[in-house]
Design a protein that fits this description.
With about 170 residues, the protein is of the alpha/beta class. It is built from six helices and six strands.
């Protein structure tokens, strides 16, 4: 497996570094899997602050993947899909569908309120997850751990962002 450089962004008006269990889970999970935590940040649920930071990370050739947690629901200021979707060159439509399918087994029909999404922007993968630690665990264990592993077959997303393998497609 080739370790990827992954940035983690928590989107919340109420959390700080000490109470950010979801961002901490993602940082721990990715490092335990052999990836590198490139950056970790926490910003309020504000479309323009989200876009500014994610745009900077998309433009940074040292960042292969961005994982966001929070802001994917329908309540309050949840605005992650609106902030991120316009930045994507290619959406990964199946990600949100698969996440909700897996999540349904855990939380039933409440999963319909998740607006999780993913896509590719400037050869950077972006995955937007709900803010709960359980949802981040579901996404990591059910999808991301395999898809960010360059050895996973028959295909994976890691090979799209590893510089020496970007020209190869499946």
């Amino acid at each position: 497996m080739i370790g990827l450089n992954i940035a983690v962004l928590t989107l919340s008006d109420t959390r700080d570094e000490s109470s950010d269990k979801s961002g901490a889970f993602l940082a721990d999970a990715l490092t335990q899997a052999g990836h590198h935590l490139a950056e970790k940040s926490l910003v309020p649920d504000d479309i323009y602050q989200i876009r500014a930071l994610v745009s900077r990370w998309i433009a940074d050739p040292a960042i292969d993947v961005i994982l966001t947690t929070g802001g994917t629901g329908f309540t309050g200021r949840d605005s992650t899909p609106e902030a991120i979707s316009v930045l994507l060159d290619q959406p990964i439509t199946g990600f949100g569908e698969l996440f909700r399918q897996i999540s349904y087994q855990e939380i039933g029909s409440s999963t319909v309120q998740s607006r999780s999404l993913a896509g590719l922007a400037n050869q950077t993968l972006i995955f937007c997850l709900p803010g709960s630690t359980g949802a981040c665990r579901t996404a990591w264990q059910g999808i991301l751990a395999e898809q960010l592993d360059s050895d996973h077959r028959p295909c994976n997303f890691a090979n799209l962002v590893i510089p020496e393998k970007r020209q190869h497609t499946y």
